[in-house]
């Protein structure tokens, strides 16, 4: 039955994040039709009105477009999608930095840490 | 009309087993007596037993209704969650019960008539008109059955209402209520008001019997029997009122 | 719109509801949550017209509720009793004969969706399949209000899953309001748009689920605990 949702955040926003994530990862392509509200509700085990709200929010964010009588589609505006990609990147960096700060790491520690990690990973993969 | 026929067919299924059991009993009883009477040599035994069985059908309807109502009582939420009026919900049961009663009665009557016609004894029963007698018997059975049936439905419904509020005491209260109402009915019919309401409109009905009554005190001609129409009208009105009171209780006061 | 106005329900020794005032909006899937004996079932039966208030009024679209409101309300009882002599198919056609809004095609569609054999007698069905039949009988009505009293209780996870999916597939929130009571609120939490918290016959709150998450950062269970503590 559906996935677990974070209790402290509205479900419609979690669905917005999830769908954005799927678009960035390429699981949903530009111009692709999203499932209907009911289908999406069944797939994710969520109230249909919540899904409508998710779609409205995505539309407001200009990530999807609703075509009358046809359904909801991922936008074909490449620019908007790369913007979205940037937004998500910033978002993740922000979260990362905040948590690192709470653990008492300085900016230098973080940059060093990342650099070392990335280099090690490259070597391991080689 | 679909909702009515759906209800009607459902009612038939609720009590079908009871009807089949009664019919089986009718047949086994009648044939058993018929076979036995060959040996016992009691004249008209089968026909007489048939007559008794027929009269016992007065209790058929109240028993039928109790079985039917009790089966709904176990799932009131199902029976009462229905947009049809209480009078229809109950009416479907009463009419079904009457139909079942008639079916069983036809079985008994046919078997009795066959036995009557196969009778080898030379005693002649003092019956002029078998069909007229049958019609009277039928009328008496139906009137008795309906009266008891409607009252049973009323008391059952009253029990359901009380049960919500006083639980197991409801049965006791209903039994007291039955006693009180019966006592009141008996007392009232003896009062002047009661007599004025019930004891009027005598008409003479033709008698189906050819009995020669020779008692001197008995002046009325034996070819007719006196019958108070007023009584029938009073009882009918009373039953209709009780029926609608019951329906109202079912619609408004019975809770799940 | 369902409205409770100063509604109390008293029995000889106990109070089932006391002074309930609540207006339930249309077109939502609403959870009625509270502990055992809090008055959930009485609340539902009152909307179905199967229990009458001792005081106050229950109305649907400003018309007082009676038993015959059954033409606007589909009520799924927590009890598991149907006419045992009927097969699934016969039960469906009996319901179709009683409710003008009963959509027989939809009923069979739901049964097929949940993989219930329609030729079986209801009494021979497993508990899970009887639960599914109940759902089908309720959701097949094109009716403005659907009440489901503990539709998931006592059923295994597979059945619950198919019931939740069936629920999402066959209700139409543009035309229908659905109220569900359940012990296991966590299980259907993402389905619910609003919750009504009820305790000892008192309605403590009617709240938007997303608001609870956003404002209080809580799941319904925790929110309910908080409501209960605030009241105690």
Briefly characterize the structure.
Chain A has 126 residues and is mainly alpha-helical.
What would your notes on this structure say?
The complex is a heterotrimer of chains A (126), B (256) and C (232). Chain A is elongated and about 55 Å long. In chain A, a hairpin with a 3-residue loop joins strand 1 and strand 2 (71-74). Chain A starts with 10 loop residues before the first helix and ends with a helix. In chain A, strands 1-2 form a two-stranded antiparallel sheet. Chain A contains 5 helices and 2 strands, in the order αααββαα. By secondary structure, chain A is mainly alpha-helical. Chain A folds into 2 domains: 11-76, Arc Repressor Mutant, subunit A; 79-125. By secondary structure, chain B is mainly alpha-helical. Chain B has one domain (2-252). Chain B has helices at 2-40, 45-56, 60-73, 76-80, 86-117, 130-166, 169-190, 192-198, 229-252; strands at residues 202-206, 224-228. In chain B, strands 1-2 form a two-stranded antiparallel ribbon. In chain B, helix 1 packs across helix 3, helix 1 (2-40) packs parallel to helix 5 (86-117) and helix 3 (60-73) packs parallel to helix 6 (130-166). With 232 residues, chain C is α/β, with parallel strands linked by helices. Chain C has one domain: Rossmann fold. In chain C, helix 5 links the parallel strand 7 (145-149) and strand 8 (177-181). Chain C is globular, with a radius of gyration of 18 Å. The chains are: A mainly alpha (126), B mainly alpha (256), C alpha/beta (232). Chains in contact: A-C, B-C.
Give the strand order of the largest sheet of chain C, numbering strands 1, 2, ... along the chain: 6-7-8-3-9-10
CATH homologous superfamily assignment of chain C: P-loop containing nucleotide triphosphate hydrolases
Query: How many strand units of chain C?
Result: 10
The CATH class assignment of chain C is Alpha Beta
Q: Please state roughly what percent of the residues of chain C sit in beta strands, choosing from under 5%, 5-15%, 15-25%, 25-35%, 35-45% or over 45%.
A: 25-35%
Shape field of chain C = globular
The CATH architecture of chain C can be named as: 3-Layer(aba) Sandwich
- The span between the termini of chain A is 41 Å
Number of helices of chain A: 5
């Amino acid at each position: 039955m559906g996935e677990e949702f974070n209790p402290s955040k509205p479900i419609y926003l979690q669905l917005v994040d999830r769908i954005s994530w799927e678009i960035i990862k390429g699981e949903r392509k530009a111009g692709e039709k999203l499932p209907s509200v009911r289908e999406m509700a069944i797939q994710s085990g969520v109230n249909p009105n919540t899904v409508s709200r998710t779609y409205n929010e995505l539309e407001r964010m200009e990530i999807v477009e609703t075509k009358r009588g046809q359904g909801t589609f991922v936008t074909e505006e490449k620019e908007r999608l790369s913007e979205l990609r940037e937004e998500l990147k910033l978002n993740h960096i922000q979260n990362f930095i905040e948590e690192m700060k709470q653990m008492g790491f300085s900016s230098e520690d973080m940059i060093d840490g990342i650099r070392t990690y990335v280099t090690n990973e490259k070597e391991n993969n080689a | 009309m679909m909702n009515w026929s759906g209800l009607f067919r459902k009612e038939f299924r609720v009590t079908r087993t009871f009807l089949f059991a009664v019919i089986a009993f009718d047949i086994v009883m009648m044939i058993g007596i018929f076979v036995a009477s060959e040996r016992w040599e009691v004249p008209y035994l089968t026909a007489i037993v048939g007559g008794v069985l027929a009269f016992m059908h007065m209790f058929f309807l109240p028993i039928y209704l109790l079985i039917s109502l009790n089966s709904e009582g176990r799932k009131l939420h199902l029976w009462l969650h229905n947009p049809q009026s209480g009078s229809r919900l109950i009416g479907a049961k009463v009419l079904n019960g009457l139909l079942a009663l008639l079916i069983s009665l036809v079985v008994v009557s046919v078997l009795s008539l066959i036995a009557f016609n196969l009778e080898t004894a030379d005693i002649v029963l003092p019956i002029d008109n078998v069909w007229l007698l049958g019609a009277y018997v039928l009328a008496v059975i139906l009137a008795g059955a309906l009266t008891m049936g409607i009252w049973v439905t009323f008391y059952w419904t009253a029990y359901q209402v009380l049960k919500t509020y006083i639980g197991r005491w409801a049965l006791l209260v209903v039994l007291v209520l039955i006693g009180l109402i019966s006592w009141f009915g008996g007392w009232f019919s003896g009062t002047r008001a009661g007599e004025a309401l019930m004891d009027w409109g005598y008409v003479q009905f033709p008698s189906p019997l050819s009995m020669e009554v020779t008692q001197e005190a008995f002046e009325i001609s034996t070819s007719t029997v006196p019958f108070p129409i007023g009584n029938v009208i009073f009882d009918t009105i009373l039953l209709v009122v009780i029926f609608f009171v019951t329906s109202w209780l079912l619609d408004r006061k019975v809770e799940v | 719109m369902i409205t409770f106005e100063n509604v109390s329900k008293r029995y000889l020794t106990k109070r089932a509801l006391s002074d309930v005032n609540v207006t339930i909006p249309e077109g939502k899937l609403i959870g009625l949550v509270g502990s055992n004996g809090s008055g959930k079932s009485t609340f539902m039966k009152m909307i179905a017209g199967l229990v009458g208030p001792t005081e106050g009024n229950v109305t649907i679209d400003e018309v007082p509720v009676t038993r015959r409101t059954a033409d606007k309300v589909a009520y799924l009882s927590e009890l598991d009793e149907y006419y045992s002599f009927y097969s699934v198919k016969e039960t469906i056609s009996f319901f179709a004969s009683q409710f003008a809004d009963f959509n027989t095609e939809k009923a069979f569609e739901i049964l097929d969706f949940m993989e219930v054999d329609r030729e079986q007698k209801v009494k021979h069905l497993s508990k899970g399949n009887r639960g599914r039949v109940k759902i089908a009988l309720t959701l097949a009505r094109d009716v403005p209000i659907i009440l489901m009293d503990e539709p998931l209780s006592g059923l295994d996870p597979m059945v619950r899953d198919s019931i939740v999916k069936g629920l999402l597939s066959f209700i139409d929130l543009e035309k229908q309001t659905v109220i569900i009571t359940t012990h296991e609120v966590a299980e259907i939490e993402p389905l619910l748009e609003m919750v009504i918290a009820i305790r000892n016959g008192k309605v403590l709150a009617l709240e938007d689920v997303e608001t609870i998450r956003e404002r209080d950062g809580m799941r319904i269970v925790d929110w309910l605990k908080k409501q209960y503590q605030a009241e105690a």
